[in-house]
Amino acid sequence: MIFKLVGDGRPYPDHGLRQRDWAQIPPRQVRLDQLVTTKRVLALDLLLDESSTFYGDLFPHVVQWNGEFYLEDGLHRAVRAALQQRTSIHARVYTIDSSARPAATVSGERDAGSS
User: Fold this and answer.
1) Residue 74 domain-assigned (yes or no)
2) Residue 1: CB atoms within 10 Å
3) How many domains is the chain partitioned into structurally?
4) Looking at the domain assignment, is residue 26 inside a domain?
5) Considering the chain, what percentage of its residues have pLDDT values greater than 70?
6) pLDDT at position 103
7) Is residue 114 part of a domain?
8) What single-letter DSSP state applies at residue 105?
9) CATH code, 34
């Protein structure tokens, strides 16, 4: 199993962070098996592109909400790390207060190990 769950959508409330806000959050290590993805589909061209982070953030964006770590941006980086036999990645983690109202329900969430 690579990820804790493969989700489709963001169940947490909108955080309103912009790219420059994310840049202020120092990266830290996060285990891949703790992450819940927010995208079911991976663009293969991004996975294979060595310069895919040229215009974006070097670190994936993770939102911690209700004790879960949601991979909001950087799925291709996380998959690339898994393909390189790594068990963790450096990511920027933003924590949302657990009392915040949730977004729309996540549809089609399932275990990453199942087909």
Assistant:
1) yes
2) 11
3) 1
4) yes
5) 75
6) 58
7) no
8) P
9) 3.90.1530.10
Angle value at C-alpha 11, between 7 and 17, nearest 5 degrees: 110
Asked if residue 61 lies in contact with residue 74, where contact means CB atoms within 8 angstroms, the answer is yes
φ/ψ of 93, rounded to 5, equals -115, 120
Does residue 53 surpass a pLDDT of 90?
A: no
As a whole number of angstroms, the distance between CA 57 and CA 67 comes to: 24
Confidence of residue 17 (pLDDT cuts 50, 70, 90): very high
Predicted confidence at residue 105, as pLDDT, reads 41
Containing domain of residue 39, as a range? 5-11+21-107
Tell me phi and psi for residue 11, to 5 degrees.
Answer: -80, -15
The contacts of residue 30 (CB under 8 Å, 6+ apart) are 62, 69, 88, 89, 90, 91, 93
* pLDDT tops 60 at residue 11: yes
Closest to 68 measured CA to CA, from 102, 22, 36, 112: 36
Nearest-angstrom CA–CA distance, 76 and 114: 20
